[in-house]
Amino acid sequence: xxxxxxxxxxxxxxxxxxxxxxxxxxxxxxxxxxxxxxxxxxxxxxxxxxxxxxxxxxxxxxxxxxxxxxxxxxxxxxxxxxxxxxxxxxxxxxxxxxxxxxxxxxxxxxxxxxxxxxxxxxxxxxxxxxxxxxxxxxxxxxxxxxxxxxxx
Length: 152
Prior knowledge:
Number of helices: 5
Order of helices and strands: EEHEHHHHEE
Number of strands: 5
Largest sheet: 5 strands, mixed
Helix content: 40-55%
């Protein structure tokens, strides 16, 4: 997906957008090199749904607060792409690819839905978990390095 931006009297500038999966959104503040992210970062409604679950299933008050902060930041920073009709049709192709590669779709249904949104919108998918998306035909996966436990 190309996004065009112009200002009066200036020439047209084209930037490249990309979809951040939930793993990247959670780790945004701790990424080793934020320059590996797309110029126009986007998230999906599925990622927002996953982030919404986080505070509700947290085991401690500190964990709940941290997860709530990530959710609130994502809500403030992004207008999520929907899981719409195009994404639903793309999900069929994603699920078929996963089954063909002998991977279980059900266990990865949130990820498969995110992949479908990326595919439907012709966006590369930026993820800290690239192995979750192996075998999905037509998906442009961009691995994002995450801090090690000692760096967190």
